[in-house]
Every structure is written in C-alpha cells, then in structure tokens.
Write a structure and sequence with these properties.
The complex is a heterodimer of chains A (114) and B (111). Chain A is an all-beta fold and 114 residues long. Chain A is built from no helices and 11 strands. Chain A has strands at residues 5-7, 10-13, 19-24, 31-37, 44-50, 53-57, 65-68, 75-79, 88-95, 104-105, 109-113. In chain A, a hairpin with a 6-residue loop joins β7 (65-68) and β8. Chain B has 111 residues and is an all-beta fold. The chains are: A mainly beta (114), B mainly beta (111).
Amino acid sequence: EPEVTQTPSHQVTQMGQEVILRCVPISNHLYFYWYRQILGQKVEFLVSFYNNEISEKSEIFDDQFSVERPDGSNFTLKIRSTKLEDSAMYFCASRGTVSNQPQHFGDGTRLSIL
Amino acid sequence: KNQVEQSPQSLIILEGKNCTLQCNYTVSPFSNLRWYKQDTGRGPVSLTIMTFSENTKSNGRYTATLDADTKQSSLHITASQLSDSASYICVVNDNNNDMRFGAGTRLTVKP
C-alpha cells in the first residue's frame, strides 16, 4: 500500500537556525497537510495545501513557517528561525479527491531544538 | 468553541479483555468523525469513519458508534491484543473539512 514518507526521521537543530522538513505524499493525492504534536499533547493542525497554494493555516503557522511543493513529488515545511518551542513531532499527511477519504499520515519527523 | 474531548486519558487492560473509549464533541456543523490509531513513534492511521447518518460501524475487532444527537462517539475494542497498545484519537470534521483532534486515549494492553 502506498505510504507518505517523511525525512529525516529526527532533526536536531540549534535555536535560530533554519530547518526544512521533507515529505513525499502518496502519488495521486492532491491535498497536503502539515501537523505538529508536542510531546504528550494532541495533534495540532498547521497548514493545508491544494493546487499549489495554501488553503488554510492555523494561528501556529506564522511568518516563520512556509510550505512549498518544489516539484511533482515533494512537499516541504520550512521553519526560518527555530525556537525552543518548535520542538515537536511534525507529521505530513495527504489525501485524494474522493469525498470522505481519510488523510494518510507519514511517520513524522522529530524536531529537537537545542 | 469547537472541541473534542476524549476519555479516559489512559487505560490499562489485560490481553483478551474488551474496552470502550469515549469521545464527546461540540464541533458544529458536523461532517464526520474518525477514529485514528497512533502507535508510538508512528503517524496516526485511520480506523473508521462515521457520518451523520451512521450509528455503528465495525472494522475487525474495532466497533465505533455515533450518537449525533448527544454528540458522542465510542470505540469498542474486542478481545484486545498486545498490538492494540497505542493512542486512539478521535477526530471530528466540520463542513469546511477542518479536522479537530482530541487529545487521545493511551491504551496499554498487558499480557
């Protein structure tokens, strides 16, 4: 079964540095998402992306965050100047166009800010 | 405020026993409700989806119920196995396809 893949699985970065998290969604999916999950807390929506533009974003997704689909397969989340509180698991998800199809999640990137 | 509340926060049961997890929501307008299973260190995986008109849906040993009037859902796990140990997350979609996540129930199945 096709999967959403995320790299790296763990990223350690100094505070203030830029970080790019990468995702390869399922190939025929057209809707893409980023979520984060701080350790011990619930999954939080960051942003949704469709037709090469952001569909919706949460309050968390401020101007330090950006997303890009640079080619036909990758979907990236960039954090420009990381803060300690950005430490979390970041999940990418994608879904197809049929109504009520589930979002398929990757296994996440654990981001640790030092 | 649109919210999804789950109970209990955590649960420990013996292998082979049944259990029921609860989800109450205030999301409106309601579109559908999903139960996800999240193994430690993995992304959530969809178990089942409930739409407004559905009361019960089964997926193997998992049975989900929905009462749209009282805005409650449950996930019943029958004959639990060690591999059922995971977090179970209730997610409610509104008509804008915004997903509201519950905090999850952490289930531990012991031998």
